[in-house]
Amino acid sequence: MRVLCVAEKPSISKSISQILSGGQFTTHATRSQYIKNYEFDYPQTNSFYTVTCVSGHLTGCDFPETHRKWNSCDAFELFDAPVEISVAGDKKSIEENLLNQARRADMLMIWTDCDREGEHIGLEIVRVCKRAKRNIVVKRARFSAIIAQQIHHAAQRPVELDRAQADAVEARITLDLKVGAAFTRMQTQILQNHFVQLADTRSVVSYGPCQFPTLGFVVQKWNLVKSFVSEPFWYIFLSLTRNTSSTRGEDTVFTWKRGHLFAEDAAVSLYDFVLSDPLARVIKVTKKGTKKWKPLPLTTVELQKAGSRLLRLAPKKVLDISEKLYQQGFLSYPRTETDQFDPQFDFHTLLQKQTIDPAWGVFATSLTDGGFSAPRKGKNNDKAHPPIHPTAHAANLVGDEKKVYDFITRRFLACCSKDAEGWQTTVDVECGEEFFYATGLLVLERNYLEVYPYDKWVGHEIPDFEEGEEFQPSVCELREGKTSKPSLLTEADLVTLMDKNGIGTDATIAQHIQTIIDRDYVIEKMEGNTKYLIPSKLGIGLIEGYDKIGLNKSLSKPQLRRETERSMVQVCERTKSKADMLEETIVQYKEMFIIARREFEKVVSMEETEKVGAGEVVVVMMAVMAVTEEGAAEGTLRGVEVEAPRHHGAEVVAHVEEVAEVLLWSPTPMTISTLHRHQLHVVERTKQRQVPIYAKLDLLIQPEKLPSPLQVDSQVCRI
DNA sequence: GCAAGGTC
């Protein structure tokens, strides 16, 4: 019997060929650059095997010609528009290979990853192959790790494809397209009508069920920081200066068990009690062994967080580098949710490969010589890939690639070694009926910390105390502190939030962050060595706009995506049909769309009308700029660098020559847009271009690019 | 000119 096996990606087709053939296979090139066909006999099932693969999803979906153009229909119609499935141009050679191979085969065995997407990719493969051979027998190989015993078992005991899982994915694909396209077109068109700067067709104001909750997290944290008001608090500070074995006159600070109090009078009266007691009593001294746990096996999400926090590389960058190292054979597959190693995992061989490294070779040797300790087990297993680990020793890497490889290898070595061990002393003290404590730590065995410098565990000594002993505190004061501002959102924080809330997957989280940056919704800001994410005016405007609309389920919060996820699980469990899921969800989004469109118009115009009332005279500061060649307007205004965005489609570079104050009297309530058009009218009659300085007019256009003194100068003032 | 999910 001829069996055609199709895996999800090249790496898997190669591994299963090696395992099933015992290394005895022939390789054949295909018209696709990355894809090869492997052929061999598999006597265990009396078959001749051809193993090939696809490269992720084989087909894509889009609207037909009648709905594809932006002006071909009202955005609302997209919800009921048909959707076409087709093989994308760059996948034609893969399709062709499948057709050729299926024609010669009796059985098609699907070897895609054992997850929902894999089940759907399997269905895509089946659809193509059946076109070449209608009655081909279809089976599915099920495996949870690329380990010889499991792969043989999968080949010999294949199961059926799970249509329900494929259905769930198909529903999600359709929904994401319809919702994304409808809302994107609606948002973009409304904003373009109100803000001339957005008339540029390149600036799409996209909506997506993952990118908006992602943006929502950034805006939420920004608001928290912005609205923060520092609060004073009070606490009792108690310390004793006493010699320890290695230091002289070291201060031991005792922490107040109550932490701190926000009520000053309460703190004062408690402090009075303490003051009335001249001596502090040691009521308990506890000494016990303590551990600092070694890290968990590495998943993609953890790698991206660490990359951002410790290596200062953007999540997308970390993933790109890992992908490259994986293709060079240095790393295992870098997209995994699994944080537990299979019990049969061959640690010894992999550790052996690291023993030659100048930096950690000695440590790796100590692990192979009996120091090995089984890695901790996390709670996640995607049943397709092991945790990320080095598969070969890499000697000649430099720069960011070296940083990433070093981190992954040290992490793997740390996972295979022992927890760090220490000795902790806690001294509990009572004084004036208030309780205090101090702790000391002695690090005994650094163990995994030796090879994992990314974790810190520093011991601090504490003098000897005995239970019942009394002492007079060196300092006993009521001190005042204040709550400190929360920090802005870092990339690592955002990855954590997305992961926790189920926004995106290990492979897409980084992309969604990149998208909201590319769309100018979010700006990256370096502060010292840390990169923070702050929302642009446009980003804030969009999120607050949707929040003001007051839908009972916000389009900017993770809840809707969670519901989509829940529906998919129901479809997988066969408690809901794909048709029902589509119907229910589309009805829900249609309602939201209608409200959102109506209110969006309102919100956008509100943003504008608050500016100039009827009969008011306004002074607008104008920068008079000499028009030169293409580009954006830039120049100096009152000693400040000025940069203005592209103007009305026509790109100009202008040099600021002088500042004019223009008086305008407004017979009717006037929006800033009207004001803007009025000025453009003046502009067109001169050879010079007068540019209103971007005050409120351009609230939605990255005013961050303008220096702040300018914004102050250019307030639209009422007389 | 729209999405998110695979993957190269």
From TrEMBL:
Enzyme class: isomerase
Domain named Toprim: residues: 2-144
Key words, A-Z: DNA-binding, Isomerase, Topoisomerase
UniProt cross-references to PROSITE patterns, sorted A to Z: TOPO_IA_1, TOPO_IA_2, TOPRIM
Catalytic activity as recorded in UniProt: ATP-independent breakage of single-stranded DNA, followed by passage and rejoining
GO biological process: DNA recombination; DNA repair; DNA topological change
Molecular function as annotated in GO: DNA binding; DNA topoisomerase type I (single strand cut, ATP-independent) activity
Function summary: Introduces a single-strand break via transesterification at a target site in duplex DNA. Releases the supercoiling and torsional tension of DNA introduced during the DNA replication and transcription by transiently cleaving and rejoining one strand of the DNA duplex. The scissile phosphodiester is attacked by the catalytic tyrosine of the enzyme, resulting in the formation of a DNA-(5'-phosphotyrosyl)-enzyme intermediate and the expulsion of a 3'-OH DNA strand.
Identification of the protein by name: DNA topoisomerase
